[in-house]
Amino acid sequence: MTFRQRVSLFIVIDSSIVLTAIFLSKMLVSSTYQVLTLPIFITSLTLIASHHLYSLLFKLYRKAWQYASIGELLVILKIVTYSILSVVVIQQILFQTIHVRLYAVTWMLHLLLIGGSRFVWRMYRDTFMSNDDNRKKTLIIGAGSAGTMVARQLLNNEGDLHPVAFIDDSVKKQKLDILGIPVVGGVESIENVVTNLNIEHIIIAIPSLSKKELTVIFQECAKTTVKTQTLPMLEHLVTGKVSVNQFRDVQVEDLLGRDPVEIDITRISEYITDKTVLVSGAGGSIGSEISRQIAKFHPKKLILLGHGENSIYSIEMELKEAFGDQEIELIPVIADLQDEKRMLIVMNEFTPDVVYHAAAHKHVPLMERNPEEAVKNNLIGTTNIAKASSWSGVKTFVMISSDKAVNPTSVMGATKRLSEMVIQSMDQSSQTKFVAVRFGNVLGSRGSVIPLFKKQIEKGGPVTVTHPDMVRFFMTIPEASRLVIQAGALAKGGEIFVLDMGDPVKIVDLAKNVIKLSGNSIEEIGIEYTGVRPGEKLYEELLVDEEKHEEQIYQNIYIGKTANLYLDEINEIINTFLELERDTLRKKLVELANAKDVRVVKPSMSISS
Q1: Annotated domain spans of the chain
Q2: Is the pTM of this model over 0.90?
Q3: How far apart are CA 216 and CA 239, in angstroms?
């Protein structure tokens, strides 16, 4: 039906309703049976005209009545009331009399019939035209405003989800009905409710949940085999980026039990805004996210340095699309850290104020097989870019390190530890502030276990885990990047900043969560233990014993300093590594990185300094 046909139909129906209301009122309040009189005729015409006039004014004929609610009822109330008042005025002008009882009854019948005609259609549609039998029975967790909006959306559209029950921990809401949907219990009853009501889908509709609260709820949902989704992030709902019915799958990142860290925007802005910033490894997982976060602070120039042209091109295009309306000069630079002259040329050409050095080889087993490449990229590459930064007058140099640099058993960890020593040595002889930032694994990075698990699940399993007792620290890429930028703003020079990674996570538990989040059962996919790989430890550390202290320099950021740096030994390895046997090179790297005559200097600065 076209809009014009729809309006014409409503005009005919409403005209009939108005006439019915008037004549029925006359019969109810009059002692005579003479219904059609001149006053009644004029009243009828006036009421019909007034009704249609106010209906057009309040856009009554544009309402979609399958979604009718209190707002539509209020519109009808206004139209009927104003129409009756208009008739009263005309009646007084023409006949100098007002039939109060007649118009009071007419107002009630008019309101009842107009409102009833609309809501009867909605009831008929919901009762006889819905496809509830073909829709998945859905359990909504959270009976607050967000959960109610979700339920209303699902009830009013023709999607494949049909809400049948709410879960809410508030005892005030339990055993009540909301939009005709019962609140059947608290979070602890999810498993029983899913079984008893044959639930086929679960939606967590509490966008303000903390990570720990979401983890608790998901663990209850994971006891079932039902697919579980959640609402978008609260800030995305508030800003209108997504609507309340755009559900997303629960991600592993949601279950880390870590709440977002608030960064010191003012302090970061002071040393990034309108400055030239260079990010090495800008095409990688960490480097690209650091670039995204830095762009939000409006640097004058953002230099995206990397060895792989495709990844640099991708991050450049992404940043141009996201920040194209801002005056940020994006400069992609293809360069190899191992080329000392190239590093000097780049630094002298752009003279950055701040450098974030994220480029590195990070894959532990691969570096065990190729220790020479770990030395060239991680150790020599870091030395080259650090020296070039010092010679070109960079103000702050931030190197991304790793928890594998602590008591390293791997080549990768050893080269990272030696790179920290190089950075701290540079700080003692340079005007540039050199600092390192240590953290553990990040979820979603290249080489992360999560993509591997997902691929294995897609193939039907099994998911491979090296050891049942293997544990790691995990952090999301955005959180790690924000803390790295914050650490750079706190730098005095020579520090090793250590990010608080929270509690360590067992890899096997992570694998189980990924399996459950994919909608599969652990029994179907299976978990296979393959044994610890070369260079791996069962657990990682963020600080050696001598470095451990409780003071935080900033929320989730600790700090320590190392005194003895073994520069002669490092230079010897750099000068001779190509001549050494692989086993000898590996042994020398690990032994030097694990030297114990190290002391810690307590942090002497505060956030206000």
Answers
A1: 3-128, 132-250, 265-445+475-500+541-593
A2: no
A3: 27
